[in-house]
Design goal:
There is one protein chain. The chain is mainly beta. It has one domain (3-205): Fumarylacetoacetase-like, C-terminal domain (Fumarylacetoacetate hydrolase, domain 2), CATH 3.90.850.10. The chain is 14% helix and 34% strand. The protein contains four helices and 15 strands. The chain is globular. The chain binds magnesium ion.
Length: 207
Amino acid sequence: MKIICIGRNYADHAKELNNAVPTKPLVFMKPPSALLVNNKPFYYPEFSKDIHYELEVVLKIARNGRHVQPEFAHKYYNKVALGIDFTARDLQQKCKEKGHPWEIAKGFDGSAVLSEFVSIKDLEDKEAIEFRLSKNGEDVQKGNTKDLIFSFDYIITYVSQFFKLQQGDLIYTGTPAGVGPVQVGDKLEGFLTTKKEEIKMLKCNIK
Ligand code: MG
């Protein structure tokens, strides 16, 4: 199982970190050991003083495939979750300055928070999924997948040129604006709107 992540996939977020809006998806990975599930707490690591939350819609890959053509891309995922792409922003900044890979800033233990999944069938419109993150009861991020620069189908087609997609793989599809730091004691909650109602998908306490 692999965890594929897309960076800078919402223009408002690219701008808030003074990054250019990309013309092709920015792809990186986290190892499976990064996963943090079942609403377990996140333990603030000693190597960073600036851990940021990034709430993202996550796709679960439903079948194996490589070189997926655009017209078939929708067949490769059938469930979505919410995830937090925890990022050690201070380490990431150093890596960027040196032109080094990002893994230590993005793939550390617990950096891939993942909720339960909901079926795409239960969503009003998979092209317009509303989601939000609250920190200590206050909304800090609000997103809608209609604002994605690269759609789910485009991501599937693009990524599968390089990496064989395998059933169970996860794709973190990028974060909207509003990313920010967490501190020990913070309580994060992620919500997603389905056909019927808004569901609390995840909670993550920072310890
Ligand atoms: Mg991200």
